[in-house]
Specification:
Structural class: alpha+beta
Largest sheet: 4 strands, antiparallel
Strand order of the largest sheet: 4-3-6-7
Helix content: 10-25%
Order of helices and strands: HEEEEEEE
Length: 112
């Protein structure tokens, strides 16, 4: 009887380890994470004003996309400086995707 339980437990552990291995080896290039933006800084976060500042080491123009937590695109714009006006956003949690050249980074943005 104990031998039967041993094999059942061994089977479940092997399934769990295969699932973890599959999660580790996902190809993230489809998500645009193959190159991160160097020196990216978004401040203030959480924000209570109507603008945020986005800086990076290269200081090139940036394509900005902001999504709500359900994945709906709320805002899309291109900035050449470091200031982004977010007065149209209601208080909540958002995902901000920033593309600078070939590099892309995604961060969480909290609006109070």
């Amino acid at each position: 009887m104990a031998k039967k339980y041993f094999y059942i437990i061994l089977f479940f552990f092997s399934l769990l380890s295969l699932g973890a291995y599959a999660q580790e080896n996902k190809d993230l290039s489809a998500f645009g994470t193959n190159q991160a933006i160097e020196g990216l800084n978004i401040y203030p976060n959480p924000v209570s004003a109507d603008r945020i500042y986005i800086t990076s080491k290269n200081m090139q123009s940036k394509e900005i996309q902001i999504y709500d937590v359900l994945g709906k695109k709320i805002l899309q714009t291109v900035i050449s400086g470091k200031e982004l006006v977010i007065s149209a956003l209601t208080p909540g949690v958002y995902i901000i995707k920033i593309k600078e050249g070939e590099a892309t980074s995604t961060r969480k943005l909290i609006v109070k």
